[in-house]
Amino acid sequence: MSKENLLLTLDNRFVGIYQIQIKDLSAGRFVEETNFKIYLKNTNEELSQNPAMFGKHFSGRGQFYRPWVEVYFVNTVKFESHKEKLSYETLELLFKEISSLIPAGGKLMIPYIDHETTDAALRHGRTLAVTTEIGYLMWRAGCTWFKDWYFAEGAWEGDVKLQGNKPFNEDHRKENLLTIYEEVSDFLKKDNSDDGILNGCRQRAKLILEDIKNQIPDISL
């Protein structure tokens, strides 16, 4: 299946009350890269005037360059007569659809500079990427390893972003889950401040631990 057709598999899928519309496919910097935009159609058959997501899909090259998606997203979409704020549940479904473009070992990258809560949490320096709002969306979309690109390391990284990797196989997934369980458990033990940003991270941290316990019932530290 070509990379264009893979993107088009998302076309007309539903995410909650909205229907995905893939638009503006164009060639990227490399043969394997395609630019795309995702608009949403609401229950009144109105198409959003701004994309809910836009970004790049890299379909992979050989054995060592795994597929990836880099995508920007917004919390509010505009229609002709009004605006609609996307629920967290809708965003979670959108992230899962985008993640479906990435096979095992692939990468999902989300610039976060325009998302104040995630940006503030990461600048705080006392939390984990996976417990931020965007990090948790990536976690729910199947990512099990995370990196904060706060400092660019070359000429191609672009904006600051979170990177989430999908595991290569079941053993790799379990290894990552054990690491995250330990790190998140330590975070909850060490930080008991009343900081509002950290409170949100703690709530998501507890949900992550429950997710892992459901997947690995006999886990213990």
How would you describe this structure to a colleague?
The protein is globular and about 45 Å long. The protein has 2 domains: 1-103, no CATH class; 111-221, no CATH class. An 8-stranded mixed sheet has the order 1-2-3-4-5-8-10-9. The chain is of the alpha+beta class and 221 residues long. The mean pLDDT is 91. The longest helix has 21 residues, at 170-190. The protein has helices at 3-8, 88-99, 116-124, 133-140, 170-190, 196-215; strands at residues 14-15, 18-27, 33-41, 53-58, 68-73, 76-78, 83-85, 107-111, 145-148, 161-165. It has 6 helices and 10 strands; from the N terminus they run αβββββββαβααββαα.
Spell out the key features of this protein.
alpha+beta, single chain, eight-stranded mixed beta sheet, 2 domains, two-stranded antiparallel ribbon, 34% helix
